[in-house]
């Protein structure tokens, strides 16, 4: 089993894909990175943690917020990683935060089933 880290932000239809990814596997833990809107409107499951960030922060500050928020939530040594949802800035910040934590990354998506890229 693995931990899943997924960005849940902007993008038409992306919340559906993230939900299918979450439900398509028995994850040890799911960590969702989102904004206030996402934390209030996405249904949280029992094995899920939600990390709320402000994507309007400067890139370096956003990266540090994500890194500091994730460091106590993830066991590692690797995580499944999905950035279907969100902006390029959010993608860069999350990828950088995970790498700064020393975690290995498996990129996953959902196309009728979970696929590893």
> Structural class of the helix and strand makeup?
alpha/beta
Low-confidence stretches: none
Largest sheet: 6 strands, mixed
Named CATH topology: Rossmann fold
Beta-strand level of the residues, as a percent range? 25-35%
Q: How are the strands ordered across the major sheet?
A: 3-2-1-4-5-6
Give the CATH H-level superfamily: Hypothetical protein VC1899 like domain (Restriction endonuclease-like)
Q: Using only CA atoms, what is the Rg? A: 13 Å
How would you describe this protein?
With 117 residues, the chain is α/β, with parallel strands linked by helices. The chain has one domain (3-116): Hypothetical protein VC1899 like domain (Restriction endonuclease-like) (Rossmann fold), CATH 3.40.50. Helix content is 35%, strand content 27%. The protein has helices at 14-23, 36-41, 59-70, 88-100; strands spanning 3-8, 29-34, 48-52, 78-82, 104-110, 114-116. The chain has a six-stranded mixed sheet with strand order 3-2-1-4-5-6. A hairpin with a 3-residue loop joins strand 5 and strand 6 (114-116). Helix 3 crosses helix 4 (88-100). The longest helix has 13 residues, at 88-100. The protein is globular and about 35 Å long. The two termini are 17 Å apart. The mean pLDDT is 93.
